Amino acid sequence: MLRNSIHRGLVMRERHTTNTAGRGCAAWWAAAVALLAFLPPAVADEPADPAALVRMLADPEFTVREQASQALVGLGREALEAVVAGTRHPDREIRYRCRRILSLIQRNDFERRLALFVADPTGQHDYGLPGWQVFRAEFGSSSAARQFYVEMLRAEPALFEALQQGAAAAAEQLENRTWQLQQQPLELTGQTPPVASLAAFLFLLMQPDLEVSDAAANYVLNHCFQGYFEKALYEGPARALVRQLLGKVVERADEWPAYTAIRLALRYDLPEGLQPALRILQEDAQATVVYLRQYAVLAVGRFGDARHTEVLEKLLDDATPCIPAQAVNQQTFETQLRDVALAVLWKLHGEDPRQHGFSNRVQEDPQLGFHPSTLGFNSAEERKAALEQWRAFRAQSRRETKP
Predict the structure, then answer these.
(1) In the prediction, which pLDDT does 401 show?
(2) Helix H segments across 328-378?
(3) pTM of the entire structure?
(4) Does residue 84 belong to any structural domain of this protein?
(5) Range of the domain at 401
(6) Domain limit, last residue, from 230, 252, 274
(7) Is the dihedral of CA 26, 31, 37, 40 positive or negative?
């Protein structure tokens, strides 16, 4: 007990001061007895007074200060009010110790609530853990979902605390966290955030009201190409949840992060990649960079169907080069955006482009559908003839569908 420890210290001090006489010794002993008055009896039922323990953090004796610190940590949440007040105390030693004690109390309380959550098979109670209700609404409360949430929360508790405060606070915290990771010393640049941290970043990115910079979003998305993340996506115990989480982020991506999101969708076969692709082709007037639109077209070919014909037909007059002119067997081929759109249109209608004006150079690709560099034409006449075949096909289709 704290009282007994301090009492033993006083006794030892008395033994070492037997040769000290006068009022100074008596005054010291009176002060020590007064100090004991602030502590509960060794066998008392009442808990220690947190406010008194905080005052003892400024005691001249190091042992007393340490024992008071331990007692406050042991009281946990019961001491929070006094400890928080102590962080603003005029005495520097009290302020310093209260800040450390507050951190320990919060960490211990977090671990206590986390243990209760893990032991609860229902997942119906959040035990004050931040972000669980939002996570459960999206991913359910299965055992796998709860374990996945716990791993993310352990990895990035500050992100979840910020999310509890609102979208603006969460966005700021994510910006700071990604910036911190990018500022690692050169010897650490080869390191990557663990899967649980990356999953926590993705969880914040999927929140509908959260807006972060393109740099922060792309930092997170680009790490999803790493081998360790791919392994978690295909082999990890939470692979279904990881895929679902990434899909939700891909689905809401826009502007520059949409390009990275579409590439991820094509690589990992995420149908959610259709949505950012359609936004780029239908809504994003700023999407003038050709390779961004090219990947959007390829994503429509991968995840879309014939219902998206009109979206792609609008590109059949776009002569923007996608691939620099290439010389093949003394012939020059150039791939334009309309060539990619035309090949994808034939694919959406179940036709082989090579049977409709494209050369046998066309090569299919398991991710992109086609290698864009093989979709070019040798001359304007060949391209014009291929476009005329498509228009004739569409005209015939319209006649056949008329009532």
Answers:
(1) 73
(2) 337-348
(3) 0.78
(4) yes
(5) 292-403
(6) 252
(7) negative
